[in-house]
Amino acid sequence: GFHPIIAVLIDNKEEISNTVYSGSVRYSDTTFPASSKNVDVYCLFSNQPTLPFRIRIPSKNLTSPTLNGPQTYRFANLVINWGDPDLIVIVEPA
């Protein structure tokens, strides 16, 4: 199956540590002031072979190119404003 393990770093600080695939949403314990941030999403897979995947942040209408294998993808200079909807990071099959 498709079982990605992801960690989310914001401005080079790990804010959400490695997840275990569960289908549920995990939130950061930290809130962030309105500003521009680099959001790095590190992804690996618990099962081989890895499958092509994409990373999406729906509330910002952002999608990575198709990726494959363990790697980090950066959404650079992501503007976060007060009142924005949640920044939910989704890793899905490409």
Q: Could you report the average pLDDT, rounded to the nearest whole number? A: 90
Determine the fraction of residues in helical runs and give it as a percent range.
under 10%
Distance between the termini: 14 Å
Low-confidence stretches: none
Work out the oligomeric state of the chains in this entry.
Answer: single chain
Q: What does the main sheet amount to?
A: 4 strands, antiparallel
Beta-strand proportion: over 45%
What order do the strands of the largest sheet run in, or round the barrel if closed? 2-1-3-6
* Element-level helix/strand string: EEEEEEE
Number of helices: 0
Helices and strands: which structural class? mainly beta
Q: How many domains?
A: 1
Give the overall silhouette.
Answer: globular
Gyration radius, in Å: 13 Å
Quantity of strands, as a count: 7
If you had to describe this structure to a student in words, what would you say it looks like?
The protein has 94 residues and is mainly beta. It has one domain. Helices cover 0% and strands 46% of the residues. It contains no helices and seven strands. The strands form two sheets. The chain has a four-stranded antiparallel beta sheet with strand order 2-1-3-6, with no helix packed on it. Strands 5-4-7 form a three-stranded antiparallel beta sheet, with no helix packed on it. It starts with a strand and ends with a strand.
